Fold this sequence. Notes:
Number of strands: 4
Structural class: alpha/beta
Strand order of the largest sheet: 2-1-3-4
Largest sheet: 4 strands, parallel
Order of helices and strands: EHHEHEHEHHHH
Amino acid sequence: MTLRYISYYRVSTHRQGQSGLGLEAQRAATVAFLGSTGSELIAEFTEVESGKRANRPELAAAIKACRDGGAILLIAKLDRLARNVHFISGLLESGVKFTAIDMPNADRFMLHVYAAMAEEEARRISERTKAALAAAKARGVALGENGVLLAAQHKATADDFAREVGPRILAMHDNDGLSYRAIAENLNRSKLGSFGGKAWHSTSVYRVATRFRGIAA
């Protein structure tokens, strides 16, 4: 009996959705998977999200289609999504069968573990943030409205830069297999400055990649 799949793709920004960056890689992985298993793809759903983790209407539609058609949900790229508590909850509560191409051994138990780890990490980040603010206050650093506003503005600017350059870095790292050092050399040759306007190094490339992955999750 031929297995029937419904694929769920996800890109993190409207710019990525329009350019196809990341989406084509997910589709290529899906085609390769279907070809290797002799399975049938009956529908596709693509989620285009902002950096703010909003509701996922396309995921809900894909899950409903799986229920209605007796199909299996096929997720091309689960790795970062598996660290998102809301995504995990929705997937587990749906009760539909699913297959993750990039995490073929993922099952309901593993997702429960990922959810617990994500919640624990969020708690630790909150504690570290509070401790850092308390230490800064003890050193006499202004933490009033202006200080908070400046910090928020800096974060927003850094996030925007990560959204702009992050997809390019991940494409070179994940798709082309380049090291962060090699990526830094490529970016320097292209005359694109780092977030601070200076030359790229492996550490600055890694930071932007990490920030973008966090935003995109």
